[in-house]
Amino acid sequence: MTRCLALLLLAAAGFDHSTDWPSYGNDPGAMRYSTLRQIHTGNVDRLKLAWTFRTGKPGSEAIPIVVNGMMYVTAPDGVYALVPETGELLWKYDAAPMALRGLAYWPGSAGLHPRVLAGNGHFLLAVDVVTGKPAPEFGNQGRVDLKKGVLGDLEDGQYELQSPAAVFEDVVITGCSTGEGPPSAGPYGDIRGWDARTGKLLWTFHTVPRPGEPGSETWPPGAWKNRSGTNVWGFFTIDVKRGIVYAPLGSPTDDFYGADRAGDNLYGNSLVALDARTGEKKWHRQLVHHDIWDYDLAAPPALFDIRRAERVIPAVAQITKMGLLFVLDRVTGEPVYGIEERAVPQTEVPGEVTAKTQPFPLKPPPLGKNEFRLEEMYDRSPEHARFCRELFAANQMKIGGPYTPLPLEGNALFYPSTLGGGNWGGVSVDPSLGLLFVNVMHVAQWGHMEKRGSGYVRTSAFGRYARFWNPETHTPCQNPPFGEMIAVDLASGDVAWRSVLGRIDALEAIGVRDTGSVNLGGSIATAGGLVFIGAANDSRFRAFDSKTGKVLWETRLEASGHTSPITYMGRDGRQYVALMAAGGGAFLGGGLSNSLVAFALPDVPRTLLPESVAKAVAAAAEARRGLPKVGAYAPLALPPGGAKALVAKACGAGCHSIEVVTSQRMSEKDWDAMVRAMVARGAQASEAEASAIVEYLAKTLGR
């Protein structure tokens, strides 16, 4: 098989690779823009399903990449290489757990084959694309242990690489996912650069400054030690010309209580520009001071140029959970449209010290809803309207504005929620039109603080993460729209158009239309005048007209694409649009699938693929003879009795759906780690209940 793959890659050497999609954002600056125009506003309504590939496990948020005639993608059970024109399997490397959101590509050098790099739990895994196996020269037989060097005084801690690394020249740059709730101690969220050839550590940037480092004055003495969070769990972008990597950082732990970290807490919730070769800081811009709302930055900072008269501004745009879009000069960090510090409400929680002001961009206006009046309470259908009124009254909610601290009495209600606003899907940009596209959802959060031990924790009748919606239907409790697609004119900073994104079938069945829906994921833009997105929680894939915001095409999917699509030109002469339609992490409660789908125009004349493709596919099938069939996933129905009811209560609410659990097969130790992590993130279970759940799952879904 290795020889066939090598020939296949050689055959692709003469292909026009500008029509590939070589990284999650296409270009290193993540404009998510394609110059392809075979699919355009005049024919997009003729798109048809071209192929479906099924991974071994469901629930991926991965963004595939296409380079040198190969498609690479991660799923919860491994790394896959596919034929991008047909979806046929070339190789699979079995590994679990794998990164939720995708992988990166390194083109090779000095006799080394190209590699794909992805998170494998707390390891960075490098797979040789020719052999389909870990690259032996990298780290320890293809893996680097990312926990080494970030545990401080701790023996162990929660640490994963869930999003793609960034690759610049021969440097691989990684962030991490760490704990977000109490206790505040955990692995450091440092950003690090690694040698792409050997896996050797090249540099480290301390995201919580050590004593004497710039920014340490924004922390109390000693508060940096073993401080977790303050991490890039989302996406990096790179200015290749200037050698700068842009890092969007999350909040420090604990997400909702910061009495032990009085101050602004750099570099939490900051966009940081680093020298990609050395890790030296160029500049930073903090977008939330002393975060106690879980307003992480996670979306890719999109890089583009703004043309004003004869001036060209190299810009970076950061969409936030707050629904605010910050546009900065990417060389200096200075705002393009202006930023002002505005006074915000102050906390009454003993020991907590909230920031007096928070930064707001002068343009564009808030893209996500951040204010609420009682007359906006949902009233379009009687059943849901009654639920929302009763939810509001029974929990003594007090309406607040942006950055409202949670009270000790009653419950605060304010927009947006911990899910956004905007979220990790990010933006796309059409540089030819000077338009930026972003999807947002309008959901509030509510809750209060309670004394627990020596500190305070966020809680509510719905647990740690309470959103102002019906948790069974995920329908928000204000009047629609619940989700929107928005275009921003980059020359002026003004909103060019807003369109409803998504639908709720149950409401449409009773005559309530144009509601939009909650959504997670991102969009792409094309020279064909289109914006593609599958993020809405209605299991549909759509194309909008870039200039007007009109929906031109819509198709049903098995599950929602809580990720971003890609587009590329096949060697057969057809443009494809592909999407992992697997339901993502099920934060919004939708169904799960294991499907990666690709669409194309059915009436385009096609060129035959090189003979090497068929040979490589046949060799791959022969190599897998006798192995389990790929794509045979089905969630297991939990048997009655035991802790089944506890599993449904603790694991089927809040962030996830029950299929996230029932599709897993793990050891008792791994089940214990997963259940403890879910409880730490808000799942409702006592210590005794958690132990019973672990015992039940290990027996029922053991490995």
How does this structure look, described?
This protein has 703 residues and is mainly β. Helix content is 11%, strand content 29%. The strands form 12 sheets. A 5-stranded mixed beta sheet has the order 1-37-38-39-40, with no helix packed on it. Strands 7, 8, 9, 10 and 11 form a 5-stranded antiparallel beta sheet that branches. A hairpin with a 2-residue loop joins β13 (166-168) and β14 (171-174). The longest helix has 14 residues, at 687-700.
Would you summarize the structure shown here?
The protein is mainly β. The protein is 11% helix and 29% strand.
Give the strand line-up of the largest sheet: 1-37-38-39-40
Shape label = globular
Q: Indicate the structural class.
A: mainly beta
Biggest sheet descriptor: 5 strands, mixed
- How many DSSP E strands? 43
Helicity, as a percent range: 10-25%
Mean pLDDT reading: 93
Distance between the termini: 30 Å
- Report the C-alpha radius of gyration, rounded: 24 Å
Strand content: 25-35%
Low-confidence stretches: 653-657
List the helices and strands and how they pair.
Elements lengths: L1 H10 L21 E2 L13 E7 L10 E3 L2 E6 L2 E5 L6 E6 L9 E3 L8 E6 L2 E6 L4 E2 L8 E3 L13 E2 L5 E3 L2 E4 L2 E2 L12 E5 L5 E5 L31 E3 L4 E5 L21 E6 L5 E6 L15 E7 L2 E9 L5 E5 L9 E5 L13 E5 L20 H13 L2 E3 L11 E4 L12 E4 L4 E7 L3 E8 L2 E5 L9 E2 L4 E2 L6 E7 L5 E6 L4 H4 L14 E4 L3 E4 L6 E6 L5 E6 L9 E4 L5 E7 L13 E6 L10 H13 L20 H8 L7 H4 L5 H13 L6 H14 L3
Parallel strand pairs: 1-37, 27-28
Antiparallel strand pairs: 2-43, 3-4, 4-5, 5-6, 7-8, 8-9, 9-10, 9-11, 12-15, 13-14, 14-16, 16-17, 18-19, 19-20, 20-21, 22-23, 23-24, 25-26, 28-31, 29-30, 30-35, 31-32, 33-34, 35-36, 37-38, 38-39, 39-40, 41-42, 42-43
Helix pairs in contact: 1-4, 7-8
